[in-house]
Design a protein that fits this description.
single chain; about 80 residues; alpha+beta; about 15% strand
């Protein structure tokens, strides 16, 4: 692995560590979307459609809510069973 690839990988690991340390229980959808380089609305749509393996959504009347448990996201990211 090249030195620049090692630096980039280390930067991503540090970014993930900071995200988890700041949010040990649940992650903000906007933060997860930024980490994955997707738009928050796209991530929310994925959760609403049941296609997001690490997050879920629910509706109460005309309002919707979204949850990304930190452990589920981390497990999915490293390829561990959720």
């Amino acid at each position: 692995m090249s030195e620049s690839a090692k630096v980039l990988l280390n930067d991503r690991i540090e970014e993930l560590s900071a995200l988890i340390e700041a949010n040990p229980i649940c992650l903000p959808v906007s933060s997860v979307a930024a980490f994955l380089h997707v738009k928050p609305d796209a991530l929310r749509a994925s959760m609403e459609q049941g296609r997001c393996p690490f997050g879920f959504a629910w509706k109460l009347g005309d309002r919707a809510a979204y949850k990304v448990p930190t452990l589920a996201f981390y497990s999915w990211l490293i390829g561990a069973p959720i």
